Structure formats: structure tokens, C-alpha cells
Amino acid sequence: MRTTVDLPDELMRAAKARAATRGESLKELFERAVSTEIGRPQQGRRVSFPLVKSTGPRKTQDEIDAILAAEEEADDMRRGGLG
Asked: Structural domain boundaries of the chain?
């Protein structure tokens, strides 16, 4: 359904900025905001990949596994080697 809503300029600027920060359209932002306000669960939300955007070089799965293993080892050592 289409409707017209009159919003203060400052609120509209803030809404546009928030939508841009989240990588969503104004329509998506307003749907989520109204759904939250009236306490109605949202319909399935469409996402785009990658979920986390990076400007650095891409890692292979082997590199990611090695990083996670190193983090787990560091956590074990901080806990006194109980891993």
C-alpha cells in the first residue's frame, strides 16, 4: 500500500543516513520501524551477501580456519591451558 507521510527534514535526513549505514532502502527501514512499533513480527527479510563488507583482501577457508585455530589456542592459554 502506498501512503504519504509528512516528516520533519531532520528526521528524514536521519532516516536516510540510517538506511544507508545499514545498506537498506528507506522502505525497508520504515517497514522495520513500524513493525517494531506496533509489535508485529516482520516478514522474512531479504539479505545480501557478503553480510560483512570488507575492504581488505579476501581470505581463503584455510586461512580463516588457521586464524580461528590460533584464536582458540590463545583463549586456551589465557584460561591456563585447559582446552
From this structure: 1-43
Phi-psi region of 23 (alpha: psi -120 to 50; beta: other; left: phi over 0): left
As a whole number of angstroms, the distance between CA 16 and CA 4 comes to 16
User: Would residue 53 be called left, alpha or beta, if left means φ above 0 and alpha means ψ between -120 and 50 degrees?
Assistant: beta
φ, ψ at 60 (rounded to 5°): -80, 165
With bands split at pLDDT 50, 70 and 90, how would you rate the model's confidence at 82? low
Model pTM greater than 0.85?
Answer: no
Distance CA 77, CA 56 (A): 29
Long-range contacts of 1-9 (CB under 8 A, 24+ apart): none
